[in-house]
Write a structure and sequence with these properties.
132 residues; alpha+beta; 6-stranded antiparallel sheet; two-stranded antiparallel sheet; 5 helices; 8 strands; 33% helix; 28% strand; globular
């Protein structure tokens, strides 16, 4: 089980890519080759990056919900809305899908934060507002 830690300042390039921090790469060494799933957070204006194995675990939990109950279907739909598989490119950059970057108000500076089994990606401004 992962326990991702740390807070990292990153910059998005003109194409919406960020250089993935080396300390996070080291923490993800065993699962990095599997890739990730990036999605909107349910409660905050940020993105969540799940290692693929963790995404699969969460998806199995969702499969346990009764899909004949409307609120469950709505929750599953909202949770999966925008989920996109992503991988690091050959130079260690992560491409953030434009629609998700727009949702999270990304400009040039972003903050990555290890949060247990996932990584949160915040705009610098939203991150500072959340802390206050």
């Amino acid at each position: 089980m992962l326990n991702l830690l740390g807070e990292y300042d990153c910059k998005l390039d003109a194409k919406g890519r960020l250089m993935f921090p080396a300390p996070l790469k080291r923490q993800l060494e065993e699962v990095l080759h599997e890739g990730f799933v990036i999605n909107r957070d349910l409660f905050e204006k940020c993105l969540v990056l799940y290692p693929k194995s963790e995404w699969n675990t969460v998806s199995k939990q969702l499969d346990g919900l009764n899909r004949f109950i409307k609120k469950n279907v709505s929750f599953i739909r909202r949770f999966n809305n925008g989920a996109t598989p992503v991988t690091l490119d050959g130079t260690g950059r992560l491409l953030v899908p434009a629609a998700l970057a727009g949702y999270a108000d990304f400009e040039k500076e972003v903050k990555l934060m290890g949060n247990g089994d996932r990584i949160e990606i915040w705009s610098k401004l939203n991150y500072e507002q959340m802390l206050n």
